[in-house]
Input
Amino acid sequence: MNCSMPKRSMQTIDAPAIGLIDCPEQVSQELPDFTSEAYKDAYSRINAIVIEGEKEAHDNYISIGTLIPVQAEELKKLAQMEMKHMRGFTACGKNLGVQADMSFAQKFFSQLHGNFQNALSEGKITTCFLIQAILIEAFAISAYNVYIRVADPFAKKITEGVVKDEYIHLNYGQEWLKSNLASCKDELMEANKINLPIIRSMLDQVAEDASVLYMEKEELMEEFMIAYQDSLNEIGLNNRDIARMALAAVI
Ligand code: PL3
Ligand code: FE2
Ligand code: FE2
Output
């Protein structure tokens, strides 16, 4: 059965507005009006955040490569994937006729960007991986998974391709932290304490615009916590450590 085809061909008085997809395997979900001014206005900031996030992710993986020369080639491949993501999301904005508000996005990332740069200059690989490969990638994975459910068909296809890559990136950081856990645990905990609250506040800042795109804050938080906890679990932290780390988001 083709789930992308709306089953109802005729609009009746009590029928919901167009966009409701009737499919037994999927939860029916109403889609926003991608052409409305409200949608385009919110999209100008969300789209910019994603474009900036992908660009900074590229730069961050290249930078981490300078700290781990033996992995520089591999990290360059991750960075190239980020450039491709950036181009994909730029096309999504163009497709909707939206101009991305890049200066808003740069401010949005500035605190995290500053912390990454400081860690980089001090050679703190653990902190760099936690910020980029765990926190930012988990944030991206959660946002993209939610977005896929309510995106326009063009952006949906692009985002589906992107999110697969983001799991590869998350995994990459996970593997490094796992192999070095004995020596990096204290730094990991400390970096998390500082940077998880920043992710939390970024989520708060994006929530209003995201809801215009039909992306609800609770859903974003839930998806983030799943990706974040799974990842810490893979790294080899126990439930008590993970609970302690997650608490940094609420206090
Ligand atoms: C790393 O590969 C990418 C980092 C990007 C961070 C993205 C944050 C997401 C913000 C919330 C909304 C996303 C919806 C997608 C819209 C195009
Ligand atoms: Fe990406
Ligand atoms: Fe990524």
